[in-house]
């Protein structure tokens, strides 16, 4: 059983804002009709003084670019068609907007008893009212410890690059929303839900649940038309608690569904056992590109509402039990349905926790598969973002799991728990001083045994070529030792002597790891000594040649210090003496060869020493 840490808490401990988010209506009005961009600038920033200097930066360059893009795409004049409506929406308080502002309800225990839930409801009129005030820079007042809903930095950005302007693209998406919402029938209710665990994820009654079905997609996450829940690769601070000219997955998602922006001002930082869900939002925009190449493309052809599942992932120590527990718990909590009638649709996700978060794509896929299965998700749509080789490998993994008829706990234990245990044993072995094992020679758990190699071994997968000649799965190149190539081959011709097993789990894998590496214990010991002394293979070879011909015996290593360095105490003193004298092993070897020549040694013997 893949255990998860206990998070038993009282309902009162669910962190909710002390007050609501306030959005006062716009009270000031333009003195004259706004018919051009200069008039708009004076209204948005009354203290702005135009400059005639050609090198001065113009105000709100991204906003000007976005307005031009809107007019070109919709063939409409922004200042006569859309701007008057935005001004009216910002000035008129909807009847459904509470005078006290927006806030969450008291947390309630879910019907399944595993989490508490606090909700905030608002309709499309309120969302349009808040977004219109954001656009005219009448900034709403967020709840304490929540995000900033100011668009000034976005409008004033000039993050121009060869692909385009990200700030302008995000503003153009907002203008497309205003253009569309003016013609939409109002009344749709949007719900922000903040969930927090009360127990353990593995305590869920998943006995009757089978492994979730998986639809691996080469295309984008948006292409899963029948998925009603969309995973947001969030930070702990939803949308990083500010709106900037950037195009990450989360920022692109909010630009395409602007009604979700309201949640930034209502949700404080997520803790390790909390998630944020934004339900019943509508996607208005189709886009192209990503990050610096993000661009507005067109309006969505069909009206589609969906739920946003915002979950953050760890950014370090990805393979520890605590980190895996946390991320599986997060994903499970977000994927649990609200009730029997709502939230049972498919979930679409992708490389959550990867990229700048540093996670392994295959590892995160297995985590989300376990979470979706425990939450009884009918279909998990997984986008590989065009990585065909990874998609083929994940298909092999899924097929092998189903062929073995593994349960949810089998997958969690064999593919997650066992790898975490291996990494923990490696770290313990390194701390205990057993550096002669393979695992102790690497700096991070992910580099000890690549997760793809581990999972392929567990499932019996082998490298093979597809019909087109593309490698569907191939283990990473194995590290070959380059030490002492003159004295012996890198791969031993005789069977390797089995290492003596100790009580540590890391040492149980030593012989297997050395076999994978293709080196002997002696090579590992010498390489570790080289690393400690800061010398290279050539220095070691020359030093051994000198000692052999000068009569210095390579004594057996007895102490822990000698084992650590790979040299005996006498040999270490010699190296220190050489450095103290300001010479080198090569110079000593040259002098020795000259002495041999002067003593009348044959030319061939001297050549061998070089």
How does this model look, in words?
Residues 207-391 form the PARG catalytic Macro domain. It comes from Aphanomyces astaci. Substrate binds at residues 235, 249, 290. GO terms for molecular function: poly(ADP-ribose) glycohydrolase activity. Pfam families: PARG_cat_C. The structure is a single chain. With 610 residues, the chain is α/β, with parallel strands linked by helices. It has 2 domains: 11-48 and 58-96 and 110-403, Leucine Aminopeptidase, subunit E, domain 1 (3-Layer(aba) Sandwich); 536-609, no CATH class. The protein has helices at residues 37-44, 61-74, 78-91, 124-135, 152-155, 166-181, 249-256, 321-335, 361-374, 388-403, 408-432, 445-448, 451-459, 505-508, 510-517, 521-533, 537-550, 560-565, 569-580, 585-598, 603-609, and strands spanning 108-109, 115-123, 189-197, 213-217, 227-234, 274-288, 295-312, 346-349, 379-383, 464-465, 471-473. The chain has a 9-stranded mixed sheet with strand order 1-2-3-6-7-5-8-9-4. Strand 1 and strand 2 form a beta hairpin. Helix 2 (61-74) crosses helix 6 and helix 8 (321-335) crosses helix 9. The longest helix is centred in the C-terminal third of the chain and has 25 residues, at 408-432. The two termini are 61 Å apart.
Could you name the key traits of this structure?
610 residues; alpha/beta; Leucine Aminopeptidase, subunit E, domain 1; nine-stranded mixed β-sheet; two-stranded antiparallel ribbon; 21 helices; 39% helix; disordered N terminus
């Amino acid at each position: 059983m893949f255990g998860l840490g206990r998070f038993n808490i009282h309902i009162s401990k669910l962190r909710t804002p002390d007050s609501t988010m306030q959005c006062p209506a716009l009270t000031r009005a333009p003195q004259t009709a706004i018919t051009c961009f200069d008039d708009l600038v004076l209204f948005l920033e009354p203290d702005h003084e135009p400059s005639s200097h050609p090198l001065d930066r113009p105000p709100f360059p991204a906003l000007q670019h976005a307005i031009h893009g809107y007019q070109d795409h919709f063939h409409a004049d922004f200042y006569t068609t859309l701007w008057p409506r935005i001004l009216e929406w910002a000035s008129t308080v909807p009847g459904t907007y509470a005078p006290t502002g927006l806030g969450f309800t008291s947390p309630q225990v879910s019907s399944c008893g595993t989490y508490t839930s606090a909700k905030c409801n608002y309709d499309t009129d309120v969302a349009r009212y808040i977004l219109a005030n954001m656009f005219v820079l009448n900034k709403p007042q967020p709840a304490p410890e929540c995000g900033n809903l100011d668009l000034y930095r976005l409008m004033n950005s000039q993050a121009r690059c060869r692909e385009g302007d990200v700030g302008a693209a995000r503003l153009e998406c907002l203008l497309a929303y205003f253009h569309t919402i003016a013609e939409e029938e109002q009344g749709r209710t949007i719900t922000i839900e903040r969930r927090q665990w009360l127990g353990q994820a593995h305590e869920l009654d998943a006995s009757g649940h089978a492994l979730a079905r998986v639809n691996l997609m080469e295309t984008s996450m948006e292409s899963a038309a029948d998925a009603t829940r969309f995973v947001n690769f969030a930070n702990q601070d939803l949308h990083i608690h500010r709106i900037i000219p950037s195009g990450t997955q989360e920022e692109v998602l909010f630009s395409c569904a602007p009604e979700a922006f309201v949640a930034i001002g209502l949700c404080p930082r997520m803790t390790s056992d909390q998630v944020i869900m934004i339900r019943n939002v509508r996607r208005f925009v189709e886009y192209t590109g990503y990050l610096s190449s993000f661009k507005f493309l067109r309006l969505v052809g069909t009206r589609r509402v969906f739920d946003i599942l915002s979950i953050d992932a760890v950014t370090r120590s990805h393979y520890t039990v605590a980190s895996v527990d946390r991320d599986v718990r997060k994903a499970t909590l977000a994927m649990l349905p609200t009730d029997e009638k709502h939230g049972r649709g498919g979930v679409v996700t992708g490389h959550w926790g990867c990229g700048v978060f540093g996670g392994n794509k295959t590892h995160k896929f297995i985590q989300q598969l376990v979470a979706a299965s425990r939450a009884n998700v009918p279909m998990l749509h997984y986008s590989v973002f065009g990585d065909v080789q990874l998609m083929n490998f994940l298909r092999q993994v899924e097929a092998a799991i189903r062929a073995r008829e593994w349960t949810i706990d089998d997958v969690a234990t064999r593919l997650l728990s066992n790898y975490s245990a291996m990494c923990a044993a490696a770290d313990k072995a390194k701390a205990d001083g057993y550096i002669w094992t393979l695992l102790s020679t690497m700096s991070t758990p992910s580099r000890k045994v690549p997760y793809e190699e581990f999972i392929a071994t567990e499932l019996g997968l082998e490298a093979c070529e597809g019909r087109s000649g593309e490698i569907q799965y191939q283990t990473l190149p194995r590290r070959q030792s380059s030490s002492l190539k003159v004295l012996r081959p890198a791969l031993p011709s005789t069977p390797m002597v089995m290492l003596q097993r100790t009580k540590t789990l890391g040492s149980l894998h030593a012989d297997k790891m050395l076999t994978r590496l293709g080196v002997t214990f002696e090579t590992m010991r010498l390489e570790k000594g080289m690393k400690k002394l800061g010398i290279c293979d050539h220095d070691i070879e020359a030093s051994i040649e000198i000692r052999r011909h000068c009569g210095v015996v390579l004594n057996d290593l007895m102490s822990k210090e000698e084992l650590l360095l790979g040299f005996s105490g006498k040999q270490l003193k010699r190296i220190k003496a050489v450095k103290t004298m300001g010479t080198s092993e090569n110079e000593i070897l040259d002098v020795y060869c000259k002495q041999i020549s002067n003593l009348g040694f044959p030319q061939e013997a001297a050549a061998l020493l070089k």
